Amino acid sequence: MNVLLFGTCLVDTFFPEAGEATVRLLRRFGAEPVFPKGQTCCGQPAFNAGFDAAARAAAEHFLWEFDGNMPIVTPSGSCAAMVKHHYPQLFRDDPKRLAKAKRAGERIYELTQFLVHVAKAHEAGLRGKGTVTYHASCHLTRTLGVREEPMTLLSSLKGATFLPMPDAARCCGFGGTFMAKLPEISIALADEKAASIEATGADTVTGCDSGCLMNIADAVRRRGMKVRVAHIAQLLAEGL
Amino acid sequence: MTHEQTSLAFRENSVRALKDSALRAAMKQAADTFGTKRADAFAPVADLEGLRDRASAIREEVLANLPMYVDRFAAAANRAGAVVHRANDAATAREIIRKILADRGARLIVKGKSMVSEEVDLNSHLEAAGMEVVETDLGEYIIQMEGETPSHIIVPAIHKNRRQVGKLFADRLGVPYSDDPQVLTKIARTALREKFLSADAGISGANFAAADTGSLVLFTNEGNGRMVTTVPPLHVAILSIEKMLPSLADLPAFIRLLPRSATGQPITSYVSVVTGPRKTGDATGAKELHIVLLDNGRTEILAGESRDILKCIRCGACMNVCPVYRTVGGHSYGWTYPGPMGLILTTLLTGMAKSHPLVDASTVCGACVEVCPVRVPLVDLILQLRRRKVREGFSDPATMRGMALFGKAAASPALFALGQRLAAAFWPVIRALGGKDVAGRMPAPAKTPLRRRLP
Ligand code: SF4
Q1: Which of A61, A118, A173, B103 is the most exposed, fewest CB within 10 Å of its CB?
Q2: How far apart are the C-alpha atoms of A182 and B437, rounded to whole Å?
Q3: pLDDT in tens, A46-65
Q4: Rounded to whole angstroms, how far apart are CA atoms B3 and B334?
Q5: Cβ separation A46–B407 shorter than 8 A
Q6: Which residue on chain A is closest to B442 by alpha carbon?
Q7: In angstroms, what CA-CA distances link B183 with A80, B142, B179, B197, B419?
């Protein structure tokens, strides 16, 4: 099966290793990723900041790049949520693009969604090591409704122990442009998240969104904690 | 206690709050407690989602026909013997109430908790007219003594710990210091009892108003609401027009939802239903009842794209779970209503020019939407206001330029790739310019981005 890989602007620019890990995982489970070379960003930063024209420009471009019938897979819950739930809002007065947006929404999968529901990766005996805790990022959990899939995968890792985090679904303070607009509050929230991570005693924290993980990594670094922060794709790919 | 709006200084306010360790500890502890109690209280409720759907549909019905329900309520309340006043704005409401009280020579007034009275800044107006106004809700009593405004719509003194309250009481009331909540409650009760018995009038708000019977419905925990509305000879109630319920028969759904959402209680200690003044043969009740229905911009909100905020039943659940509210507290928002519902309502009621920083005071994490008992689409409303802020030109020029550039780059792969290369090349400069609080929290861009690593 061929799938279109949406790397997301953050993974593409800052965390290409997470993108490469996504490719390895998909291949291992029989999906051949095709990376549309002209892809950029889903438009989420502009949409969340109220800049609809810029968000629409990005969305239109996305729909053009990811046109077709293949499933779209992305290592980001918030970008998948953007396409699935917010594109139809952006194009509600534009019937032609609205139809296209809805089709893209039906075709898009956040990585763990694809791995559990399509590839059945959790039944394949992936390996891991050490202790792992998981941050449930907001849009993945509440907008996309992906709650169990990442934990299903993490608990299936042979050799690793999954340790649930207190208030795992509380916002880490990233919030896209929130991080830049109200940095003091953002940092305070990330610190609270870091404390929750510390409370689990896990040696690794993971999640499905690079933005949140970036914010968390900064808090962990600032507090001098010895916790590894890794995207779930990287963690899972290590056990292949 | 006057309400100087400081919403424009949200960031400065929040930075100050972040440094106040007592406030942060009190907020965190209270919000956590309410959050846990809320979850426990809803655990035994069968078909909670169905109940939320029903409550949401009732509120939707009210909004769809608001003028009709307000008229119906006014007529029914009139028939029951109440005098109904309509106030288009805050100044009119204040003046109507001052006049009612002054005409009857009222000097001492006891008050129940009412956020609408905070919205119109009633107390300072009455005090300026020479009246003594005493808040009787324990939380309100505390903040009135402190000269502050409520920092939560249900728990006005949520930002204070019991040691601060103990010290305040010892200083102001001359009682021995204690930080035992029971002792403190008893002290307040004793001080207030005297006021209740000698008050010339009572002022209350209302949680709901039943349009079919003209009844006011008040949820209280301390019994002070009952005292305020029945002990003094004159009762003045002030409420905003959207508090309507089509019928008293709609009340049970809200009795099940509101206290559970607010404080995690299955029901409040007192649910008072006030229908008209005391009638011959009644054992209790005010002899005279005046009801002030406040519009103050609601009709305009109702006609606009943000009307759904008027579904809100003021339970406060959205604030308790909001990561921003629980970190910086209610006063940071700079006006009467804080948290997710508050930043929306404040912006709509006081205007974008006075409140635009508030629309950014959310991570749009959606925790509020998850708990709202009447399904107010808070995140959608916040995003809508952000769009309006941009449209109305309240975004700063740098953001405007940045977003225009973003739109171009997102639509052009060549420009996007160029941006990536430039970012990587100039990262040290960007980091220095972006400062430690923003760019300093991000890693450097990868030397080879994903697009150049894949075939
Ligand atoms: S918006 Fe919803 S959760 Fe928030 S106070 Fe209103 S009813 Fe309660």
Answers
A1: B103
A2: 9
A3: 999 999 999 999 999 999 99
A4: 9
A5: yes
A6: A214
A7: 54, 14, 8, 22, 64
